[in-house]
Structure formats: structure tokens, C-alpha cells
Amino acid sequence: MEFTALFLAVVIVMLAAWRGSRPLALGLFAAALIASVATYLHHATDALKLSF
Fold it and tell me: CA-CA distance, 43 to 37, in Å (whole number)?
């Protein structure tokens, strides 16, 4: 679910960059980047459940 939200956030950033102002697009990009890094760090620290 969070990956869908991140994808939609990036789509909104691209639309803002295409149609809106530059500061708005940069601010939205920064927010999407922070959310992406937070999602990555959340999933990167999960322990893998491997059975060998």
C-alpha cells in the first residue's frame, strides 16, 4: 500500500513540475524523496526469515 502511495506522490511531483511552479515541484520532490528513504529504511531493517 505504501508503494502505491509513493508512486502516486511521484506522479503528482511530475505533474507539478510540468504544470506548476519550480519551488512547488522542488518541495514536493523533497517530500517524496524523504518518504521514499523512510520506506526503504523501514524495509531494509527487516530480518529475513530464511530456512536452509
Answer: 10
